[in-house]
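fwd from M.: "can u put these together and see what the complex looks like"

so here's what she sent:
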Amino acid sequence: MTNDEMTKVMGMKEAMAAYVHDGDTVAIEGFTACICFAAAHEIMRQGRCDLTLCRMTPDLIYDQMVAAGCARKLVFSYLGNPGVGSLHAIRRAVEKGIPAPLEIEEYSHFGMVGRYTAGAYRLPFFPLRSYAGSDLPQANPRIRSVESPYGDGSIAVVPPLNPDVAILHAQRADRNGNAQLWGLLGVQKEAAFAARHVVVVVEEIVDEAVIRSDPNRTAIPSLVVDAVVHEPHGAHPSYVQGYYDRDNDFYLAWDEASRDEAQTRAWLDEWVYGVADRASYLEKLPPDAWKRLAAGEAWAEGVNYGRYV
Amino acid sequence: MTNDEMTKVMGMKEAMAAYVHDGDTVAIEGFTACICFAAAHEIMRQGRCDLTLCRMTPDLIYDQMVAAGCARKLVFSYLGNPGVGSLHAIRRAVEKGIPAPLEIEEYSHFGMVGRYTAGAYRLPFFPLRSYAGSDLPQANPRIRSVESPYGDGSIAVVPPLNPDVAILHAQRADRNGNAQLWGLLGVQKEAAFAARHVVVVVEEIVDEAVIRSDPNRTAIPSLVVDAVVHEPHGAHPSYVQGYYDRDNDFYLAWDEASRDEAQTRAWLDEWVYGVADRASYLEKLPPDAWKRLAAGEAWAEGVNYGRYV
Amino acid sequence: MAATYSASEMMIVTAARALAGVRTVFVGVGLPNVACNLARRTVAPDLELIYESGVYGARPARLPLSIGDPTLVSGALSVCSMVDLFGLYLQGGRIEVAFLGGAQIDRFGNMNTTVIGGYDRPKVRLPGSGGACEIATNAQQVFIVMRLGRRSFVERLDFVTSPGHLGGGAERAALGLPGGGPQVVVTDKCVMGFDPASREMTVVSLHPGVTWEAVQAEVGWDLRAAADVQETPPPGTDELRLLREELDPGGMYTQ
Amino acid sequence: MAATYSASEMMIVTAARALAGVRTVFVGVGLPNVACNLARRTVAPDLELIYESGVYGARPARLPLSIGDPTLVSGALSVCSMVDLFGLYLQGGRIEVAFLGGAQIDRFGNMNTTVIGGYDRPKVRLPGSGGACEIATNAQQVFIVMRLGRRSFVERLDFVTSPGHLGGGAERAALGLPGGGPQVVVTDKCVMGFDPASREMTVVSLHPGVTWEAVQAEVGWDLRAAADVQETPPPGTDELRLLREELDPGGMYTQ
């Protein structure tokens, strides 16, 4: 079997069943963009529990998973509904222990970025200029410091983060998992290299020749990828640069629904448990949704790599 | 004056006179590709001396500058004529002190990469898994180690490198210095952010709209750039991905000439001191040179960023 | 004839004007986002907007819903990974001004965006640091925009998320923080600076029609005034037009 | 009928065959480059070539002049910065095999590419580490290809650039080096492995027509043999054709 014939393509059900188990440390990353709700909803439907959920910005996706009872612990740096307000389900868990207490491990953004980077680089720690004068190290004893051996003081460090699985949404990949991303890059690459297993979820599966035509665009190489899931619109209601816009109505609706336990449950019943898969979820959207969320066109200028024969 | 009207465009003579001074620490980077010989030759013509020359691979470019007497010290990780053999001028200086002794400060590749990265990130050190069991730390006491505060042993570190000026060749930039690179990326970005001043030398100056059409491709932003020099073929005899191939005849010719002091001088007299500028140098090349070195065409597949209005 | 305007509009316009001549600003979520976009259209045409999402030189074609809006990406000068944004741009010392909002602030400009109440079982769990801790640490200067209020301007923070001038005086420099810390706080009623020696927040101008007492009533400590308290200049018609018609036509931030 | 072939061809073909079944190889300059490209065309069709220049999954359309040749970039699966190549790929533990050449090697597979003579005023200044030190440290396995010779296979190195099994036995593991160190040394006369206990280099096969004495004569210490020394299988006609007609038509490495 040659590379061109190799395939890691799987369905979402199959991929989540294979790579997400009770008790796992899971990172579904994507900063504002490319947040793979399709994977999260499938994990919820499969009834996973006791997960340690890692994400810089837990966002709606982990608010929903916490509400669904999937999580034992949250590792994060910013708990917000971006541009809208609070994450009510997580707040209920942290403030009142409802539905169950939620352990938290809290960093700043650069701290989380550094944790993934140290994990990906197999370093014992990542040094960063932060935390001095802040109460964060008291709240989280894993934030420590080391003395510079060059006599110029000490610097904060954070430990590596190596999730059992990272689930990353991207614009396109080949069947072997070489994934190309554009727009916000977040920590997708670092999370992929840090994780023991990687599932890449894409808007389009393309020929290997497309990937090879622009190798600088490949942030996640097949080397670290276990499964490729083709799930167009899988990041809705977040957005995918060049493919669709954020569906803010959903962010506002969750803000409303999630303020109340019963309504939260009703929302999950309708949009997660009440659908069989992503295709059924997408069918529930208003018929004009994709017209309203259309990205429009703004193409990158050409780039020639040359043929060197 | 708006951004679109702003310009940092200068001639090579003017840019080198403004940003390279006797005694400076200079980094002309580019790993095999995009090595800016045009800048080096102009520095040699301007008679600069006492420079600390930093580069992962000194290559022909620093071999010539050392032969010309520009350098007091060399900071590096691999002293070779790539694919050909030795750097004879530097070897003469190190082995025999001819024409003058040359101080050296030696790392491995990842050590040099880490030094630029620490400089760019304003870190007191960069940690890396290397040097244990090697004699390099004995040869260079600036390679040290720190103990992990997580109880998992010690790790080697290198100190930051912040050159006075970095000179970086790229495919294209706008007039304000936003530079896009493709192909090998080397340490161009890290060197740019680490340096106090940055001169970007490009094959093409393009409209800002070209840069803005593909922001992920911009590795060196105007924020850190002092001058933009438009010098097509300025990296000859090295190559620029998609623009031209390496002129290996030059690498072989230098290998021959540089074995002998008098011949080295003759080569410099002909190709550096005997020409007024890069244009005159290019005129000396055989008429079929650019046909022979043509890159051919292999264009990247399109990428849509979308219009979000 | 003077235009009528809301206190929020006054605050945003004043915040924007604080950026006159600035070239690089790190833009926080919410109010700072609007203020920085207004500054670029008025007092700081060369201003390049930098977002922690990885964007340098954004040209948003609409009011971004968040700092990660796709309109910030399309047409930007550069978009990089977050390790590069925080490492190269911010920690590298390349940010002239960071413009932040906040939940709680004390007299030395230390800020809390983590919890109200105790950390382990908080009364209100706030979003946390995001990038604020390292932004407050590394930006050359920090500008703050937030509405006055006794629950926000407090004698003592429940939690220090982001360091300002710590206990005041030279404490910040002594701890080796690379950036200069908070320089200005723009509110809906006044503008405050920081005393060069004590580093305590001091009122430098009151917005038109606002009394000292009205400001003090919203602040949880005995406020100090600068030597010469001015009246903040009111918004111009052009600024109000941009704000109302182009930057925030929905009135999300300006009501 | 057996084909005729040079000692260099024998060495390259044998080196290529050592990669059977391997999926990721870190390719060093010179001989390893030819051997890895040959392996991909023969015994390891799924082999992805990784170069320290930042290239993953290269498909060179010609024999690369160096590890930074543009033909390695065009058509590759991914090209990244050097900090990512060394950090994510190599140090991250993602490289199955690194294929290196060298100037001097000792019985435990430690290598010198720095100096002959003293460091401060060397007799011969060699290129130095390049990436060799961290490659030798981090790759899961290290394969070495170099010509035999008394100046290369020495009792004592002038300088340890890249750690092999250090003083032998468990020393390497005790020092905490993440990778497994050297596993095989392919030369123009024989193939050597490393004893599982002592970690000393041992001859496992002699190339056709080569005697033990001819090998020992080129090595600066008393060589040990594996329990059962084989004859190395000779190159096949297909391998020789690929090498001569496609991979190195100029005979740069195969004379």
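replying to her w this: The first helix of chain D runs from residue 7 to 17.
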